């Protein structure tokens, strides 16, 4: 009882809950699920762009893309470490991912068909990730909040490298401009889906907001992203593929068209264009890495043996 009051006091005062503090089981479970899902998204998210590293059009583009994809691996590692502070087991989380028992962001189940997709992912997908993640820098669980501060700094580089690539392509040939437009056409709606189902159907939002894990609803964040992106699209010279998209002076926001939620649920449910491929690739990478984990464990055991002798 007293512990519960202390927890509620900490959350209400906007202080951070730390790993050794008492916390309700539901809070711990919700955080493990959310952080694991976030970590999986970072790791699976390396695949669509990793697909283009060997075919980058210049050394400069290749260096940028390599750095970006490596950053995503780092984000995954911070987040798995944050989940471990809650008592989660890393091996277990990986098993749940490759067995399809835990989710990752459905955006990464779409294919990258051209190099313009690298730019559009940076601009829209990393852009949406920033809108989602900036409020998480103030989330109530300390290790998650601190991980997000560093992640967000890197995400802003990701977004800018994408936008800069697109600006360059838009100054190029007509074929390059067409390539960018087609890529925007493919990624726009899935990017809006990144904020999750509408508030009326989001089962976890209310409790997560009470615990101050979440600070804004899915629809609020989606609106913020649309409002932020429209002027960027204009500057770039691309058309966002939504005939209903227009400024609403009364609301002070852009109105936009209905999202195809049937598609969203289909992809989340495992039946998107690349779900099977993403999981198979992750499983193989994990299996191929077994010798590295064994070698690291053997080295650690040898080291601790040496220390005991000394
Ligand atoms: Fe990331
Ligand atoms: Fe990123």
From TrEMBL:
Under Pfam families, the record lists: PaaA_PaaC
GO CC annotations on file: cytosol
Query: Which GO biological process annotations does it have?
Result: phenylacetate catabolic process
Q: Which InterPro entries match?
A: Aromatic_CoA_ox/epox, Ferritin-like, Ferritin-like_SF, PaaA, PaaA_PaaC
Q: Offer an example of a GO molecular function term for this protein.
A: phenylacetyl-CoA 1,2-epoxidase activity
Stored PANTHER family: 1,2-PHENYLACETYL-COA EPOXIDASE, SUBUNIT A, PHENYLACETIC ACID DEGRADATION PROTEIN PAA
Official protein name in the record: Phenylacetate-CoA oxygenase subunit PaaA
Please report the organism this UniProt entry assigns to the protein: Actinokineospora fastidiosa
Gene, per the UniProt record: paaA
